[in-house]
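Subject: Predicted fold for Glycosyl transferase, 428 residues

User T.R. writes:
Posting the sequence so we have a shared reference for the thread.
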Amino acid sequence: MDGQPDGSPGYGGTLMRIVIMAVGSRGDVAPYTGLGVRLLQEGHQVTLATHALFEPLVRSRGLDFHRLPLDTREELTARLAARGPRSPLRVTLAVNQVVADHARPLADAMLAAAREADALLLTPAGWIGGHVAEGLGRPSMGVYLQPMTPTRAFPPATVTTRSLGGWANRRAAVALRTLGQQPFRQAVDGLRHDLGLPPVRPGAWLARLDAGRWPICYGYSPAVVPPPADWPRWHRTVGYWWPAPDPAYTPAPELADFLAAGPPPVYLGFGSLPMADRDALSALIRAALRTSGHRAVVNTGWAGLHPMGDDILTVSEVPHDWLFPRTAAVVHHAGAGTTAAGLRAGVPAVPVPCMVDQPFWARRLERLGVTPGAIPFRRLSADRLAAALTEATANPGYRERAAGVAARLAHEDGAAGVLPVLAELTRG
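User M.O. replies:
I've generated the structure tokens; pasting them so everyone works from the same file.
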């Protein structure tokens, strides 16, 4: 990030050098390419600080890249796949521990990225950048893909979909935020010492952010998750940040030929979900498709799926915004990004949630009426999957409702919603 950016001022303010700190899997990074490109179009200089695994993704979209340590694919696969499905809370804490084990190298890399920045945008797993911002005197804000602000309206999105009651929902979210920071205490204390800051307990630091009206923009649609009435006005739901399209993408000939050779296929993919037994899951998918009679495009993903059959095409890294509108239905793990892509395409869904916030998004799809129902991953069987695919594609109501949601999303501009918040932030 050498030098000052050139061009005319962006939305209501001065051109800035902006760093987005994105920690996690591909679904935790890709939406910020879209947000970053929009900020770039406003004249700002934008760096996406994330893992080396995603450097080609970032640079191909015209954004600057700063490397953060941690191979999330390797770590999540090694630690989670072998243990099999567990409760969302246990998995959430396990994922948090993966990041915590690399907290100090992550903090040092964030510090290096932030030194030349004018403002920091922090993702949920990149929250440690808040201490960096404090130490360097840089303005910062949250840019989140799932609801994190405590509320009475629903329980913590990464723990359960079952309401605990208004008071307990809110208290559980407050407790989870504090609990999630405990494994980072030693790294945070060392970072703050190096920055000349006094130590601070996690709960006290979070309370300070709340009292200081630290802004957060949520990158999903209010049509999907209506903003709770008890959220502060500086926590705003602005709409989805769609991943920036690959300007060089053209479909492989075998994919184009497969799509043209018959009726729209169904899509099956589980994204960055680690998998202990890819052979068993591949066989299950093959059996379900044989029973339902559907053609299918299957994304290998981090699970390494490899179902075989005349009417099954296995692919990798096909842009959802290109592929999903050409399908009859999408079967996925209900990650935030894949859920959003399916809604944008206006196609029915069969969510198969496993961990973290996936059950939350699966429940949202049910409430929108675009799915015959979620199948928790631990209960997935060939018969259940075949029945869900048959219902999702045979009942026109699911596609009609999905098309209605897609029409609403088409009128939203989530990236634009960040611009006035950023302008207010940097005006101090």
